[in-house]
Amino acid sequence: MPSIANAETLRFGGNFPADHSSSKAMEIFKEELASRTDDDLTAQLFPGMQLGGAGENIDQVSAGAIMGTWIGIAYLSRIVPELEALSLPFAFDSREDAFRVIDGEVGDMLDEKLAEKGFVALGYMELGFRNVTNNIRPIESLEDFDGLKIRLQPNQTHLDTFRALGANPVSMDIKEVYGALQQGVLDGQENPYSVIATRRLDEVQKYLSDTRHFYDYIVVVANRDAFNNLTDEQQQAVQGSMEKAVEWQRNKAAEEADAARQTLIDRGMEFSSLSTETRDQLREATQGVVKELKDKIGADAVESVQAELNK
């Protein structure tokens, strides 16, 4: 079997739907790559879990069965634990903060960690800020989290954060969330605005808050050996094409987040905004989670993120 590095077609699998901004950005990457290499190097895309879920896609990239994947960054934290440093609770006040971190020295450090595990990071897109919805009360203070049964992703740092806030977090598959909210098994959940809107969670949730407790990235990774086997010109074409795709996606994701929030308000959700003072209180209440994370993955990674944010 010939090496995929010598083939003219680079295969990328992803778990986001074809109409998600990240999948559309990969189409831009595909067009740009063909244009820059006069069709000598082309990309074949498999969005929407055509090649399996995120974990399977990572394993396929690692084994060299496919060239790359675009996934939520949390899925790689089992391989590169330092990526969890990006999950500091209430760390990012804006998307500009988030991109300053990932586009700077922190991103370089994480790229090195990924390379040690056989991956090349081609670019970081936006998944977005995660925000809380619930059916009990507007969330405007630390006390408002008390006792709320909230669904979260199966991520230990995320669960620990909500326990520190006094909530009762529950890990549950996203496909079960609508029914659990409808039946009152859950009080609330947290997701980027676009996910809340597309999954119609406003139909079973009353209150929407801009908690922005975590910021989520999408990372595009390739098999390191396969990438290194490309010619210098081909590598530059891949990287240049991805830069254009990432820039487009970040702008598109920001537009979609603002539009989705307005859609949720228009559909009747009651929106509340957290004050700077409240965000400071929430950050203070979750300092223990930050300490545990330092113990778990090493203080260097966490302090690098904090240092970048304090600049």
> How many distinct helices?
12
3D shape? globular
- Assembly type of the chains comes to single chain
Largest sheet: 10 strands, mixed
Low-confidence stretches: 1-7
Question: Could you tell me the number of beta strands?
Answer: 10
Bin the helical content: 40-55%
Class computed from helices, strands and strand pairing: alpha/beta
How much of the residues is beta strand, in percent?
Answer: 15-25%
Task: Please tell me about this protein's structure.
- It contains twelve helices and ten strands.
- The protein is an alpha/beta fold.
- Strands 1, 2, 3, 4, 5, 6, 7, 8, 9 and 10 form a ten-stranded mixed β-sheet that branches.
- Helix 5 links the parallel strand 5 and strand 6.
- Helix 1 runs antiparallel to helix 9 and helix 11 crosses helix 12.
